[in-house]
């Protein structure tokens, strides 16, 4: 029988140990494999960690745990509200791992449970420390500048190597994006966030206009496009890095409330479209159909200009209500969906008022942040002030909930989305418990990825020429 740590009174989770900032900086997570196996994943992603924290703080009965955790909101855990069934299942998991013992309806942490909780808490705080350092505006600016300089050098080098004027021109055009990075840096230095956001949107309009103008000129006087294997590789690589930067800027911009960063993420979406357009143009250029590249460029330019005007109009009309939520980003949808899922899960249990839901949400954020640190609100800022009211309005307009005399209830459409979210959630939990299979699958995927990358660089050009030669012969070009 494992030793038992008796909880005689409510304790603060912060009193279990004391980690200084220096400890955070240099600590190494001990027994990572043991923690991962026991918790079925990283502690920051598991409900078991929250349950152990709650029991330590004195919520030692099922009813107390139900009440304490039901509204908890943690972004990284990617769960909707915690139901009694969820708590029961996690308690059974904890009993199986000898982390707790049960006496009547009271749960007590074992010595092993205390050790696992201590190591898990250290892991969460250690991860949170580095996340806070990484998710800072200055690092986003540095990453953006480094990315642009790298892409300029890469495109110029590859373009010179294969004799492609188009790629060298594209590389030189990337230098103009450093102007946007400079705008962000100045807006941060002089606290002119709104002016920076407007400047970036104007820059987006100018870029779209120039892209459309050049596309029209090429429609009038088509130019031969130099196509090569490395042209595809560099373009695809650029698209991938742009996606990563968009997510990075979106998270930091939303958490810090920085409009310039969110506007830059909006502007970066244009580079994704341009990159996809380049690939389409290259595919048709393989068969000497050069006009498609110009047509795609003009269409993309129209979309960029439309979105730039729309975003600029929203910024100007927002006035004093201007915030990072004013500018819509596809990268932000997953975060918004989490809050909608929380709302639907609450209403799936029964009707409630706006006031009760908003207060429960704020309480849930406080609990989540207490246990999970910055990982609870990753991608959000000032949730305690914003609350859930905005998402209630969005859900009403989307037909997911109804309001009758101040009482909200979920619709059949809302229930359908709730069940879909629930299925996805249970699949993630099931995958965590299939740890051995998951570990082997992850290893296989990792090995396959590295082998593919090696083969791509070693034999990709030969394979590309073989495929294109076959296509030309097949299509008669």
Q: What is the number of domains?
A: 4
CATH class of the largest domain: Mainly Alpha
Compute the CA-based radius of gyration: 27 Å
Number of strands: 5
Number of helices: 18
**Structure class:** mainly alpha
Rounded to the nearest angstrom, the distance between the terminal CA atoms is 78 Å
CATH topology of the largest domain: Alpha-lytic protease prodomain-like
CATH architecture of the largest domain: Up-down Bundle
- Mean pLDDT over the full residue set: 81
Quick overview:
With 477 residues, the chain is mainly α.
Polypeptide structure, described:
The chain has four domains: 13-130, Orthogonal Bundle (Arc Repressor Mutant, subunit A); 137-328, Alpha-lytic protease prodomain-like (Up-down Bundle), CATH 1.20.1510; 331-426, Orthogonal Bundle (Arc Repressor Mutant, subunit A); 434-477. With 477 residues, the chain is mostly helical. The strands form two sheets. It has a three-stranded antiparallel beta sheet. Strands 1-2 form a two-stranded antiparallel ribbon. The longest helix has 41 residues, at 435-475. It is 71% helix and 4% strand. The chain has helices spanning 21-26, 32-39, 47-56, 62-69, 84-96, 111-134, 137-162, 165-189, 193-220, 229-256, 259-285, 291-318, 333-347, 354-372, 383-386, 389-397, 412-433, 435-475; strands spanning 100-103, 106-109, 352-353, 401-404, 407-410.
